[in-house]
Amino acid sequence: QLSAYNPGFAKIIVDQIPYVRGYGTFPHPNPLSAFLVTAILITIYFLSLSATKKGKTIYSILLFLNIIGVTVTFSRAAMLAVIVGAIIYFFGGLSSKKPLRTHLKSTAIIFTICIIAVLILFKPFLITRATIVDSASLERIFYAKVGLQMIKANPLFGVGIGESVLHMQQFSPIRLQPWEIQPVHNYFLLAATEIGIIGALILVWIFILQLWKLISSYQFSLSNLLFICILVAILILMQFDHYFYTLQQTQMLLWFILGVIAAQTKIPT
Length: 269
What we know:
The protein has helices spanning 29-49, 53-73, 76-92, 98-121, 123-127, 135-153, 168-171, 187-216, 222-238, 243-246, 248-266; strands at residues 11-14, 17-20. β1 (11-14) and β2 form a beta hairpin. It is flat, with a radius of gyration of 20 Å. It starts with 10 loop residues before the first strand and ends with a helix. The mean pLDDT is 89. It is an all-alpha fold.
């Protein structure tokens, strides 16, 4: 049962009052935010293609609800990923034909209004997250340092898939509490600790290859631009957390997106 007053739950503190961050049906707010980031970018895509007033109204409401959803997870990486993905989409779409450019401009205005509304509504809560030197950020740096020590000791083949958390104490300079034993909060660094540098480089190659295929086959296609934005957003999220590597829901989201991208770039337009 989620509780704002029990340890082990993701929460923020505003005016000395703890609030549980948005979990949805997920084990943590951060993987929920990854799904919402993807949903926001897809909604922006459909909103920019909608030519009717009814369609624009429906997608605008959905966009606002999804932005509220990602806001109450209070994931800073997700907020960054949404902003970067949206900017790439809007600027990338400027090369489209004139009618579509008009729809893109209206979509950009709606998106901006939604962001401003959310900033006003959740200002006291968002201020508490407007720092990069809080305990969560310092923990990420600590886990990265432990991960680097594991890589240094096992550079070629790593410590084994799923084994890194079992070796955290062994490579930690301090005594860890049970709740402090967590995977490295970076997808590629975690991969390097568990499957070695070679394995991590293969994963890097997979992502770069798919991104390059999307860019090279772009040809002013908004669907390709959408997948570029989603993949860039996912790559941003990967730098700050481990859930694409460790949790089933986000594993499925990641490889489903990569599979669709592979099909999108393989089949001629």
